[in-house]
Design brief:
- One of its GO terms (cellular component) is cytosol.
- This is MnmE-like protein.
- It comes from Caldanaerobacter subterraneus.
- Helices cover 66% and strands 0% of the residues.
- By secondary structure, the protein is mainly α.
- It has one domain: Four Helix Bundle (Hemerythrin (Met), subunit A).
- It is elongated, with a radius of gyration of 20 Å.
């Protein structure tokens, strides 16, 4: 057990663990929003390549922005707000 503790200490507290330039997603709701945003953006690229009208492209583009807004709080729906406050003790 001591060897394990020492190894963890050396990796974490002595800076031997690095993540590089990658971002870490620690929230399942954020991960879901990013996955959805990516899907919408892939649809946008496909629609542009196929020459679809700007009106149709805008639908998926707005959907992608709404997904990102769920993370930044700019387009938080009532369901998202409820999920956030479920995890915190407000007013106690």
């Amino acid at each position: 057990m001591e060897k394990l503790e020492e190894t963890i200490y050396n990796l974490v507290f002595k800076g031997n663990v690095t993540i590089g330039n990658e971002e870490i997603i620690t929230n399942a709701r954020h991960k879901e929003a990013l996955i959805n945003a990516k899907k919408y953006m892939e649809s946008v690229v496909e629609a542009i390549e196929k020459g679809y009208s700007e009106d149709l492209i805008t639908i998926d583009l707005n959907s992608a922005l709404n997904e990102i807004g769920k993370i930044t709080g700019e387009t938080a729906t009532e369901d998202v707000i409820d999920q956030i406050f479920e995890r915190f003790c407000v007013g106690k």
